[in-house]
Amino acid sequence: MIPGADEYDIDISFDEADVDRLLTVTPADASPADALTYARNIFVPLTTACRYTCTYCTYFDAPGEASLLSPEEVREMLRTGADAGCTEALFTFGDDPDERYTRVHEQLADWGHDSIHSYLREVCTIALEEGLLPHSNPGDQTREQMELVADVNASMGVMLETTADVDAHAGPRRKSPGQRLATIRNAGELDVPFTTGLLVGIGEDWRDRAESLLAIRELHARYDHVQEVIVQNVVPNERSRFERPAVETMRRVVAMARVALPDEVSVQVPPNLSPTRDLLDCGVDDLGGVSPVTDDYINPDYAWPAVRELEDIAESAGVPLRERLPVYERFVDEGRVSDRIRAALDADDEAGERYRSAMGHP
User: Fold this and answer.
1) Partner residues linked to 267 by β-bridges
2) How far apart are CA 51 and CA 28, in angstroms?
3) CA 229, CA 246: separation in Å to the nearest integer?
4) Neighbouring C-alpha atoms within 13 Å toward the C-beta of 296
5) Could you tell me the pTM of the whole model?
6) What is the DSSP letter of 359?
7) What are phi and psi of 341, to 5 degrees?
8) Which one has a higher pLDDT value, 219 or 62?
9) Helices (H), 318-349
10) Cα(46)–Cα(117) distance, rounded to whole angstroms?
């Protein structure tokens, strides 16, 4: 039973034969992709406040220390990103920060917002004005929260991490796999192109990894909305005692993901955290969002590679490297983007040209 499944009415069961099949997968069962993709983004950490205190995370700040980026600060960052040729504005913040942080709640009220999601809608609108497509990753979301911001996002995401109950999710407010799965389900019900993924090395075992992939596959089978699954290894940092998983472990997990997921769902590894070159033959086809102008604020000790480095990775694998948008092209072709996003893609301006160029339609 997935922890929290009953509370969030998650109806997912696992066929033992499917679990057993994934547990036998090796890198030899996956094939290299015929191309690699990436998105050019600017990372906007809207706030470092979070209701959770996961032991591997350096992103959150304690109450009294966390603050909010102002609309003016956000706009300035976004203009820098647009000037650098980015197409994606990646908005992140911790889960429901206005619940736990009085200062954040009061600041939102001063700016005329009754919730962090109301403010997220404002900054996503600013992103569209400045020529960037929003991709928001605000942690767990209710259907109402997601619906408030869905039409101003090209895509959204949350890391499932694992379906297991692990000690890494410490503290009085523990992450619930059921709640994470409910967020992925909410995106499906709202037809939001979605990114999720596994965090490897936080105390889960091999069966947990197989079940996590099968849970994602099941939700995608219902709604056809998962565009990519990230396979991310935990990394050492000032708060984390977890060791980086061995390369052979990552090779096997990536291969499991490629075998478990349908072809239309990309398997992504983050090139600033993973032994990327050693994973390419296991089915990786995407290198994620990479920023030419901002840090990886979730993993600040691990710098993004330059686009030239991504080109070298692709060249070493003997495949082309292609830029993409934060929303995968099939969702655009199928008309599964909002009117706001469609208008941005079709606009007769510099931003529209940049978007179409990334899709190969100059």
Assistant:
1) 229
2) 41
3) 20
4) 19
5) 0.93
6) T
7) -75, -40
8) 219
9) 329-333, 339-346
10) 11
State residue 70's pLDDT score. 94
Tokens of 50: 């979070």
* Helices assigned H by DSSP within 24-100: 71-83, 97-100
How many CA atoms lie within 13 Å of 354's alpha carbon, on the beta-carbon side?
21
Cα–Cα distance for residue pair 40/18, rounded to 1 Å: 36
**Measured distance CA(346)–CA(362) in Å, rounded:** 11
What is the three-class DSSP state of 82? helix
d(CA 258, CA 27) in angstroms, rounded, equals 10
Quickly list DSSP for 173-200: S---HHHHHHHHHHHHHTT--EEEEEEE
The encoded tokens of residue 281 equal: 């033959």
Burial class (CB in 10 A: 0-12, 13-18, 19+), 292: middle
Question: CB of 202 within 8 A of CB of 238?
Answer: no
Strands (E), 173-327: 194-200, 226-233, 266-268, 286-290, 321-324
- Tokens representing 92 are 């992140």
Q: Of residues 176 and 318, which shows the higher confidence score? A: 318
What's the Rg (C-alpha) of the chain?
A: 19
pLDDT tens digits for range 214-263: 999 999 999 999 999 999 999 876 666 778 999 999 999 999 999 999 99
pLDDT number for residue 239: 61
CA distance 225 to 194: 6
